[in-house]
Every structure is written in structure tokens, then in C-alpha cells.
């Protein structure tokens, strides 16, 4: 399939969908991902919903242009598991640094697989989807279209993945800042909290030297 997302995490999200969805519905789904089809789009507390404009279809006895309610969410990770995951993250300076600077490191999955979880979807078990259309298949083309649209949103804000897995960016960063590494990095970078309010353009540039210094400082305070 042609790439529909620009980032590695967006592509992973779509690859999972494409692994278990009919190719014809995927092709139609890409056409359903634009504003001309998606009349309403919303992401709230990890649940993505949309109203999608459908087609007249005499085979399904749809005689006038319909509007379908569609939703996509991912299986959330339990709070107790997030506690273990964040503890694992907090031991890795590069991971803490990137997450505090509103970036998602490419080795992020290492911190989740250590407790048998993962951030990005890998199979149909990671998705919970519904659509009001009469198509018997799930995912249908409307769900596929919504997922393609969602992958574009993930390009812009990868922390939506965390939200879809049950933890907000603000809560994640707040917990990381409580760790020795988080405190040391915040100090090394010049009191960067609250980080969620800073734009990527105004964020401090993180260097390997800053990470090393913060790591040494965190061990010294233990």
C-alpha cells in the first residue's frame, strides 16, 4: 500500500489496520478520509468518532445519501501497568528527555514490551471499531477512512497514541518529572516545566551532553 502517513508511528498504525482489512475496503477507505466525506471528526479521551457521508447503494437498499456514525478506539492499558511502564521509562535518560520535550523516541516500545504491552497497534485485537453502515465487514470502508484520517492526526500529535492507550500526555509527563532523571533533566534544560505548554519551536535543544549530566546528577541524588 502507498504511504498515507509521514511519520514512522503513523505508518505503523496504518500497517496494523492494513494487515487485517480487505484490500478493496482499504482502497475505498482512503477516498473516505478527506473533508468531503468526513463531516464531523472528534477525538475525546482516546475515542475517535466521526460522521461520514456515504453513497446511495441500491444493493443495500440505501436510496438516499446517508450519514454514518463511525468510531475507532484502541485497547487501553490498565493504570497498574502504566505505573510499571513509567518506572521503566524513568530509568532511561534518552526516553525521559524526548518525552519531556514532546517527542516520541523510536525505542519507546522497549519500555512497554518489558511488561508485555505495546503502544502501537499490531493486530485487530488492538482496535475496537464500530460503524452504523449496513456493511457486514468490520472494518468497513468508513472505519478504514477514519483510521487513515486518524493517522494524519497522529503525525501531528503522537501523544494521541498514549491517550488512546489510557494515559494523557500531561499525566505521563508529570509522572516522569517526579523521577530523579526527570528532575535532573528539567534542571539541566532550565526549568522546562510545564512542558506541554511549549511549542516545538520554542523548546530547548537537547544535547547528548545534557542527558549525560542529568543522568549523573540523578544517580548522585539517589
Pick out its properties.
222 residues; alpha+beta; 4-stranded antiparallel beta sheet; 10 helices; elongated
Shape: elongated
Largest sheet report? 4 strands, antiparallel
Structural category: alpha+beta
Compute the CA-based radius of gyration: 20 Å
Counted by DSSP, the helix tally is: 10
Termini gap: 50 Å
Unreliable spans are 191-206, 216-222
Approximately how much beta-strand content do the residues carry? 5-15%
Return the string of H and E elements: HHEEEHHHEHHHHH
Strand order of the largest sheet: 1-2-3-4
The total of beta strands comes to: 4
Protein name: SWIM zinc finger family protein
Keywords: Metal-binding, Zinc, Zinc-finger
Domain SWIM-type: 116-151
GO molecular function, one term: zinc ion binding
Describe the 3D structure:
With 222 residues, the protein is α+β, with helices and mostly antiparallel strands. The protein has a domain at 8-77 and 117-167. The chain is 45% helix and 12% strand. It has 10 helices and 4 strands; from the N terminus they run ααβββαααβααααα. It has helices at residues 8-19, 23-31, 79-89, 93-100, 108-113, 141-156, 159-164, 169-178, 180-188, 208-220, and strands spanning 38-44, 47-53, 67-74, 127-131. Strands 1-2-3-4 form a 4-stranded antiparallel β-sheet, covered by helices on one side. Strand 1 and strand 2 form a beta hairpin. Helix 1 (8-19) packs antiparallel against helix 6 and helix 4 packs across helix 9. The longest helix has 16 residues, at 141-156. The radius of gyration is 20 Å and the shape is elongated. The chain starts with 7 loop residues before the first helix and ends with a helix. Residues 191-206 and 216-222 have low confidence and may be disordered.
Amino acid at each position: 500500500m502507498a504511504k498515507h502517513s509521514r511519520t514512522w508511528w503513523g505508518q505503523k498504525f496504518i500497517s496494523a489496520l492494513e494487515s487485517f482489512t480487505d484490500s478493496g475496503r482499504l482502497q475505498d477507505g482512503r477516498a473516505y478520509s478527506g473533508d468531503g466525506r468526513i463531516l464531523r471528526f472528534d477525538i475525546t479521551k482516546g475515542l475517535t468518532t466521526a460522521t461520514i457521508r456515504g453513497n446511495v447503494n441500491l444493493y443495500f437498499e440505501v436510496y438516499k445519501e446517508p450519514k454514518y456514525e463511525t468510531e475507532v478506539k484502541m485497547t487501553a492499558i490498565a493504570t497498574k501497568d502504566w505505573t510499571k511502564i513509567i518506572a521503566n521509562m524513568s530509568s532511561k535518560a534518552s526516553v525521559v528527555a524526548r518525552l519531556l520535550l514532546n517527542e516520541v523516541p523510536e525505542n519507546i516500545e522497549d519500555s512497554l514490551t518489558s511488561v508485555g504491552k505495546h503502544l502501537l497497534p499490531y493486530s485487530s485485537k488492538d482496535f475496537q471499531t464500530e460503524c452504523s453502515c449496513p456493511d457486514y465487514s468490520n472494518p468497513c470502508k468508513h472505519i478504514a477512512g477514519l483510521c487513515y484520517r486518524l493517522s494524519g492526526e497522529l503525525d501531528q500529535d503522537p501523544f494521541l497514541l498514549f491517550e488512546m492507550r489510557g494515559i494523557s500526555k500531561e499525566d505521563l509527563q508529570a509522572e516522569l518529572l517526579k523521577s530523579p532523571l526527570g528532575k535532573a533533566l528539567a534542571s539541566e534544560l532550565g526549568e522546562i516545566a510545564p512542558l506541554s505548554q511549549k511549542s516545538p519551536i520554542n523548546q530547548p535543544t537537547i544535547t547528548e551532553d545534557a542527558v549525560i549530566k542529568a543522568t549523573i546528577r540523578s544517580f548522585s541524588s539517589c
